[in-house]
Amino acid sequence: MRQLRVYIENSVIGGYFDTVFEEAAQKLFEKFRKGEYHAIISTHTYGELNNGAPENVKSNLETISYEKFDITEEMTHLTQKYMDEKIVNEQYRSDALHIAIATVLNVDVLVSWNFKHIVNLNKIKLFNSVNLKEGYNLLEIRTPGEVI
Fold it and tell me: In 3-state terms, what secondary structure has residue 147?
């Protein structure tokens, strides 16, 4: 059986230590450790972690195997398409970039605890409408609890 390719962004990595999110986040990380799921991150995720995340959050990522991808021009271009549609404002371009990265990489699912700009039904519809217009597949966006 093929492993589920799961793009994780920073809220999931940090959620491992948050009493509200820890149970689902820890179960998700256990699935990565057992090889049931394949973790995907980007240099964008890595950069955000290295830009102020506590040491325990940074080191948590190193407890799992993951595949790390660089940001490409295609991902940046798709991010701009989201911005042109005003799905999020400039302050949250970083969130749109996570969506673009996961879309271009054609992962099975992006997981997040960001309910305002990522795991938000209205935003998901808007991101996916751009994805379809641009010739990409629909992107599944879920919380870790929904994926485990």
Answer: helix
Sheet containing 4-8: give its strands across. 66-69, 37-42, 4-8, 109-111, 141-142
Measured CA distances, 109 to 138, 139, 147 (Å): 10, 7, 8
Q: pLDDT digit string (tens) for 81-136?
A: 999 999 999 999 999 999 999 999 999 999 999 999 999 999 999 999 999 999 99
pTM as predicted: 0.95
Domain 4-147 has CATH 3.40.50.1010: yes
DSSP letter (8 states) at residue 136: P
What residue spans define the domains of the chain? 4-147
Task: Name the residue type at position 120.
Answer: N
9 contacts: CB under 8 Å, gap ≥ 6: 45, 48, 98, 110, 111, 112, 114, 118
Phi, psi (5° rounding) for residue 30? -65, -40
